[in-house]
Amino acid sequence: MKMFKSSGAHIFARKIPLFLLMTFLLGGCAGQQYISKRQKAGESLLWEKKFDEAIGAFKKAIHDAEKEGDKREVGHLKSLLGWTYAEAMRLEEAEREIKEAVKIAEVSGFDPALFYARLAVVNAKTMNYQEGIEAAEKALTLMARIWQSKAKTPDRDKIIDYAVTHHGLLPDVDMIRTKEFSAPFFWGPFYLTGDWR
Question: Is the CB of residue 8 less than 8 Å from the CB of residue 188?
């Protein structure tokens, strides 16, 4: 890896396959993901790239879910709000909302794997590579736990191989967008620092 001059780009370049695998694995498990009953309005606006309106819709949905005391719903909606901020390039707000979603999930006892995957992408966009790698590692580990009983092995790499080989794990639209949205940010520092020469 002599071609990498900056340590941040060097560390990150070694982990790119990890990010891509994480994106593929998490995207493929979309059927196991929680779907909020309140996400439809905000999600429709997000896909239409009406970011301010989508943010407003997600904030209203979060408020309603908080009134009901539904922690899972709040966590899921905060993750979507964070993703909407990321799409709008409001990265500080994106990171804050997704971290709150992770915290809610961990305290309430539901799976934050998708939230960690989204956080990894936001960290990559802000060039916070170390935190991005840590979030990606956490997402992969959590996802591997779901498949461990079927793979019948404690080895995370073998579990991931099993899931990909035996279940196909075709990526869903959200995770394809995640990968495409984040790809330029994986390679940006490499080119900006001139490490490619």
Answer: no
pLDDT digits (tens, 9 = 90+) for 113-140: 889 889 988 988 888 888 888 888 888 7
Mean per-residue pLDDT of the chain: 75
User: Which of 88, 123, 157 is the C-terminal boundary of a domain?
Assistant: 88
Residue 99 lies in a domain: no
Sorted by sequence, the CB contacts under 8 Å of residue 148 that are 6+ apart come out as: 154, 159
The CA distance from 48 to 166, in Å, is: 35
CA distances from 42 to 20, 21, 36, 48 (A): 27, 28, 11, 10
Question: Cβ distance 156 to 141 under 8 Å?
Answer: yes
**Which residue, among 157, 152, 81, has the nearest Cα to 122 in the 3D structure?**
81
CA–centroid distance for 140 within its chain: 11
Domain containing 150 equals 1-32+110-197
Cα distance between residue 126 and residue 98, in whole Å: 14
Q: Is residue 93 part of a domain?
A: no
Q: Which has the minimum average pLDDT: 62-71, 131-140, 142-151?
A: 142-151
Segment (H or E) for 57: helix 51-68
